[in-house]
Design a protein that fits this description.
Blueprint lengths: L1 H19 L3 E4 L13 E5 L7 E5 L9 E5 L7 E8 L7 E11 L4 H4 E8 L14 E5 L2 E9 L6 E9 L5 E12 L6 E8 L8 H15 L6 E3 L23 H13 L2 E10 L2 E9 L5 E6 L5 H5 L10 E3 L4 E4 L9 H8 L4 E5 L5 H11 L2 E5 L5 E4 L5 E5 L4 E8 L5 E2 L3 E2 H8 L9
Parallel strand pairs: 12-13, 13-14, 18-19, 19-20
Antiparallel strand pairs: 1-11, 2-5, 3-4, 4-11, 5-10, 6-9, 6-11, 7-10, 8-9, 12-23, 14-15, 15-16, 17-18, 20-21, 21-22, 24-25
Helix pairs in contact: 3-4
Length: 438
Amino acid sequence: MATMGLRGVVLLTFSALCAAAPLDVHQSAFQPGLNGLPAGWSVYGARPEITPKTFVDSIHYRTQPGSLAISGNSNAAEYGGWTYLAPEIAPGHWYRFTAHYRAEGLQDEALQVVARLNWQTADGKVAGRPDYPYAVTTDGDWTRLTLDAPAPEKAAAVRIELFLGNAPQATLWWDDISLEEIPNPGPRNVTVATIKYQPHNTHSAEENVRQFVDLVDRTVPAGTDVIVLPEGMTVAGTGKGDAEVSERVPGPTTEKLGELARRKHAYIVAGIYEREAPAVYNTAVLIDREGRFMGKYRKVYLPREEIEAGLTPGNSYPVFRTDFGKVGIMICWDAQYADPARALALKGAEMILLPIWDGNATLTKARAIENHVFLVSSTYGNDSLILDPNGETQAVAQENGTVAIAKIDLNRRYDDAWLGNMRERFMKELRLDVPVKQ
């Protein structure tokens, strides 16, 4: 009896260890079973008449023979593909999903290639809302798709869904699919400061820069990660024209801002006027923590008044990788239009920095909400704002000569109880394939 009792304890302990082992699913080298499907995999379609053709392909694969293929089968309404149920999910634990795909005949890859993590309770009901992996990198002839996500409350399993959507002439191959538990990444805190200050009767760009530098030195505390200054900081209150204060970039203003950035050990974004040969641009510069010129953005949307003043529009939306995350820049009138913020979000910007004279605060908030990004504005006329991805104000500077400071968490998920993670849905549901030009 004692021996049997000990054996029982050993078995129970072994079972407990097995149950406690982190989830680690790796799927590749697919082979069809007796029903034509790889073990554990099934086929999904919302309706039989739009279910795509699926098959195991031993010719197209990434590492070992056998991939999961989906054909649009000349069906314009086609939507669906492969599914796999992974059990032993722990609520609140974090998981990393990775899958590789390649395709032929797509019209809009981001829209038509769909991967989802569909969380389920122990009795097969919905747990939370699906997560949509959307971050991609090129991996030879294949594309690597990844997402880190926490399991929702009550989740006990997750259905991996690999679909092809509304792509009648396309064939899509999935391979080397994994889902593994990872440590909770914790917060990724960034302290942001934005200035509200308008100089008066300074008569020179140099005096403006001196006043802004002095204000930042006095009001922005140590430990700040990024500081945002307004549009045209070298012209406001000088009585001069934009072209009169224009300068090369990098140049004298970026040098002064570089000295400030080194003292504060912070990134700085500021609007100035840039001259390149005959062209003058409304430009925002980015300086890194060591005071080095990191890059610039030239205002794309110029209002009529700036065109008549002889300014030249920019033609790109760069995104910059800092040591805390990816940032994009817009300037003033850009916020009137949807596409600058959308382009930055699609390129991976987590925060948009907006030097602005003044403008429509409702549209500024809309740019944060519709792209689900943090947005920081530095103004003369309106309030200087730090907005979260829901458009909620985290800090505000209302009086001239003041600063707004907030600590934000770039790793925080802003999920809607009914709609799920809108950043993911934005990336996967945005229709860029429908023409908008007349």
